[in-house]
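Mods, move this if it's the wrong board.
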Amino acid sequence: MIAANKTFADKTGIPMSLLWGYVGILIFMMGDGMETGWLSPYLKAQGMTIEQNATLFTAYGITVAISAWFSGVLAEGFGPKKTMLAGLLLYLAGTTGFVGYGLAHLNFPVMIATYALRGFGYPLFAYSFMVWIAYQSPKEKLGRAVGWFWFVFTGGLNVLGAFYSSWAIKSLGYINTLWSSVFWVLIGAFFALLLNKASFKTGSNKNDAGSKTRELLKGLTIVQEEPKVLIGGIVRIINTTAQFAFPVFLPMYMEKHGFDTTTWLQIWGTIFTSNIIFNLIFGFVGDRLGWRNTIMWFGGIGCAITTLALYYVPQAAPGNFTIVLAAGILWGACLAGYVPLSALVPSLVKKDKGAAIAILNLGAGLPVFVGPALVGLFFSSVGEEGIIWILAVLYFISALLTKFITLPDNAKTLHQVKADNTIVEATL
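Not the wrong board. Structure tokens:
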């Protein structure tokens, strides 16, 4: 059995000691993400404006960003399980307030406060687990290990959550669908916190209060010690800014071109089915062809082109489910081109990987704020088309920035090692 597990781990890149944790992240994120594709059109139908929706999602994104930033260093200083438990409790408190009090009475100030509280939850739960992965995975398999993380993360947040919601909002109603999220996050926590028995060792003593404080400060000082980590964080922000900007306005845009909310949820879910498949593919591709090359060409350039396609294709083929879905699938695939960033950034430093991951996690959290904020700031002046072009240009910029994220000699990918060996052989 041990040999079989080792073979499975060798082939897939999943650290077998963390297998139940991966399952838990998948289920937790399904509960967390079930309203992503339909909350904005639902609130608009209740009388709220696009700008109010953007404000709500922006407040949520601010707390997500703060939580994402601290998740790495908190996980390294206090341990992933304690940090993940804190995320679970904050999620439950925020959901109870948002659904039970704010949304039930359409009390906008309460909605903002409680939805923002809810935003602290999933980064502490999910991104802390990535620190665990960084310490459990061999360097040569880290690209695949984080590819699997983004597979279960996105699979829960945007695939299972969307498909479940497309059924639940008809069968249970909108409010009860949100209440059902509590059940799913508890199931996810059971797998990730109780069934997952993996140990966590950083190789250093961070148990005293002074060490924990220094570890928190590392989340700030790491960008001075290694500026490339900051560049990686900026690229990570751009990576999913469109993913969190789209739900604010794209469902209503699609409705104008022949796609109702249920159909849009099916498209959204299929987009991220493509994304999670390519999360795995680009984990392998990045380890073979080079992390930077994968991010630049498949991620940056690919997303820029397919973002524009998501806007113009529905105009060219209104109501054509297959053609619009194909454009969405391509965008979801290119979005996965950024997966090797989660291997590239921690490899920039020899130690304090939690601090490097903290910047990366901040970059993963900020789009939840930046995406809706862009819509709120520019929608009234530039409209849907202008927002799309802003997002496309950002993707082109991310490709250019990635060019400057070079690895130290002691942290080369398999692709780079093979290239160096080829040069040496040619020289000889």
